[in-house]
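Appendix C reproduces, verbatim, an entry submitted by the partner laboratory led by Prof. M.T., so that reviewers can inspect both the input and the predicted structure.
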Amino acid sequence: YWSDAVYRIFGLEPQKIKATFETFLSYVHPEDRDLLVREYKDSIQACKAYNIIHRILHHDGSVRYVEERCRHTYDLEGNAVKSIGTVYDITERIADQYKLQRLFDLQKNIVIQTDGKKLKRANRSMLHFFGCDSMKHFNERYHCVCERFVRNDRFFHLGKLREDADWIEALQALPTKERIVSMLDALHQPHAFNVSINHFDDDDFIVVFTDISETILEQFSLEQRVSRDHLTGAYSRDFFDTHIDTLIEKAQKRNRSLGVILFDIDHFKNVNDTFGHDVGDIVLKHLVVTVKYSIRDEDLLIRWGGEEFLLIAETESDENLRRMTEHIRQRVEQEPFASVEYITCSFGTAVHQRGETIEAAIKRADNALYKAKGSGRNRVVQSEV
């Protein structure tokens, strides 16, 4: 039995032809018939309902889309005895989806539709960026586009969220200028994107990723120029002023203190006077490389001025700081330098105390350095609190 509405969906006059499964199949699009029969038989065997979208051939020859739902009833022996289903004409809905997809594909930016967990729609720009042939291809490789966010603390990424947090909500809570993520393209090259999010319906969002890699690279380049001494590559005093409070706080959270090491090259004026300033510059650059080999990655070497350098390093005690500094002194003393052969440095150290300003700790290290130079140079002197 078919209701009058089913006949009309096929473009037929109600109840004028016999309703059979074979007649129904004759109006299903040839490319969709095998899929429909397979879904129908599988659902009977598995004793479950099915829901499928397929094409039909209207009586006037046009192609339309329908959504078909069906369930079965069984006798006591488990044999299917009746199938009851509904057919909805969803051609207009499908047409709207195609229009939306075409709108997506016209965008150069990456555009997706998602509920925050599953990717439901994406444009060609996204598929091309990730090297995927289709949405199905992407969903086979990843559960969510958020998995592709690079874990770089310059950008937003999943590592910044609580375990149960939603990345869409987290991004929306950020100021617009901080809604930036980094993702790797199909060639594993990093790109930076500004992210905009708009509600699409009750459950879904339209998320747009605008590539701002060039702007971000310029910003990073500027930060690099400001944070580094242009001659030696050591950090600059501007970088020190910007980050020192964070470094102190980080050390205190780890129950450590910041060690302050101030040092300069012994008799550096003689190097410039004897060999010239070009050689002096080479010595400064070589010294920085030598010291970097002697310290940890997290220690900060800052060009304080001229031939004077400041080293900031977390330490557990005065003795640990003294041993570290002595190691650097010996490394410099034993390092061969071009043209001048060998140089030495004098060192003053201080451990920053809780409640003390960093300027006070540097002043104590400076006084210790003055004593080191006054007592023969090429030595380490610790400050007194």
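The radius of gyration is 36 Å. Additional entries are available on request from the coordinating office.
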